Amino acid sequence: MRVKSVVYTRHRKKKIFRLAKGFYASKKNRWRMAVQQVERSLNYAYTGRKDRKTFFRTLWIIRLNAAVREEGIPYNKFIFGLKESGIRIDRKILAEIAVNDSDTFKQLVSIAKSI
Questions:
Q1: Mean pLDDT value of segment 82-105
Q2: What is the per-residue pLDDT for 105?
Q3: Where are the domains of the chain?
Q4: Is the pLDDT of residue 97 over 80?
């Protein structure tokens, strides 16, 4: 029995080749290589989305540490002081405040220092 290229097969292949567009060499236009590369790429895209969250948290902590040390207090004492004083602001917002609104950030540092 021969294999027929039915509509579904064409749609499936078109979808894979569309995802493989721009890949290097024959990975964009040979069926088996395109399938393997698309699968691998989607896998890396998934893990990349997870890694991005870790990367940004690290970036916020680095920015906070630099801003807080300019005020003469280490990062861990700053976070501890905020928690003890009941200020519940996440690191993303704190880093944004440190970059864009220095007066408010200095007030937060003084509150953290007082504890």
A1: 96
A2: 97
A3: 7-113
A4: yes
Neighbours of 63 (CB within 10 A): 16
Q: Cα separation of 62 and 71, whole Å?
A: 15
Angle between helices 75-84 and 31-70 (to 10 degrees): 80
CATH number for the segment(s) 7-113: 1.10.1900.20
71 DSSP 8-state letter: T
Task: Give the pLDDT confidence of 16-26 residue by residue, as tens digits.
Answer: 999 999 999 99
Burial of 64 (0-12, 13-18, 19+ CB in 10 A): buried
Separation in Å, CA 15 to CA 19, 29, 31, 32, 81:
6, 12, 11, 14, 54
0.90 surpassed by pTM: no
Cβ neighbors of 114 (< 8 A, separation 6 or more) are 81, 85
CB atoms within 10 A of CB 102: 13
Averaged pLDDT, 50-79: 97
